[in-house]
């Protein structure tokens, strides 16, 4: 996997979209689940996709699932939620970095590009909205992770589209 800065990933996506429709996959990496979201064909709107169960032993299975989604949904990049802190040593930041390293080691994503996007408060925002619904704890957690991935990807898409529009206006 190859890391690209956020706007570089989006610019490469735009170039590839001239040839074929490409989408982005958003990931919210947690200790038990990985929430997934998907951009629309125009890369304007993020929608919830699914949640993958995560354990220390199933990285290869998660990699296979993501690899299948890449080909089935014409994905050209990943937007991964990352807790930006000043030291970049928070347990959550280390967890995300280890997850990316583990995915890379599977060798299934050599041509895949990814970027990080700030996941600050995405889960908390979703939890705040879901609290009045009194859902079963497992259902609550999976919905939270899925919609946190939507928040990450939508934040990225909004930024990238706004930045592109500002460049075109000048």
UniProtKB/TrEMBL annotation:
Taxonomy, superkingdom: Eukaryota
Keyword Transit peptide attached: no
Signal peptide: none
Pfam family, one: RuvX
Molecular-function annotations in GO: hydrolase activity; nuclease activity
Natural source organism: Castilleja foliolosa
UniProt lineage: Eukaryota, Viridiplantae, Streptophyta, Embryophyta, Tracheophyta
PANTHER family named among the record's database cross-references: POLYNUCLEOTIDYL TRANSFERASE, RIBONUCLEASE H-LIKE SUPERFAMILY PROTEIN (PTHR33317:SF1)
Keywords of this entry: Cytoplasm, Hydrolase, Nuclease, Ribosome biogenesis
Domain YqgF/RNase H-like stretches: 22-126
InterPro entries: RNaseH-like_sf, YqgF, YqgF/RNaseH-like_dom, YqgF/RNaseH-like_dom_sf
Official protein name in the record: YqgF/RNase H-like domain-containing protein
GO biological process: ribosome biogenesis
Keyword Zinc-finger: no
HAMAP family cross-referenced by the UniProt entry: Nuclease_YqgF
């Amino acid at each position: 996997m190859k890391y690209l800065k956020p706007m570089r990933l989006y610019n490469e996506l735009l170039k590839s979209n001239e040839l074929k429709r490409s989408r982005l996959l958003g990931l919210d990496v947690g200790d038990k689940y990985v929430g997934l979201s998907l951009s629309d064909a125009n890369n304007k709107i993020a929608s919830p996709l699914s949640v993958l169960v995560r354990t220390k032993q199933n990285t290869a299975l998660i990699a296979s699932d993501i690899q299948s989604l890449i080909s089935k949904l014409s994905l050209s990049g990943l937007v991964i939620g990352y807790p930006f802190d000043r030291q970049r040593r928070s347990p959550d930041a280390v967890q995300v970095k280890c997850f990316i390293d583990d995915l890379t080691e599977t060798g299934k994503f050599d041509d895949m590009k990814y970027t990080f996007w700030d996941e600050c408060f995405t889960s908390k925002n979703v939890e705040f909205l879901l609290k009045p619904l009194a859902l079963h704890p497992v259902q609550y957690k999976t919905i939270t992770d899925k919609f946190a991935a939507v928040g990450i990807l939508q934040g990225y898409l909004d930024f990238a589209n706004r930045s592109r529009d500002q460049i075109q206006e000048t």
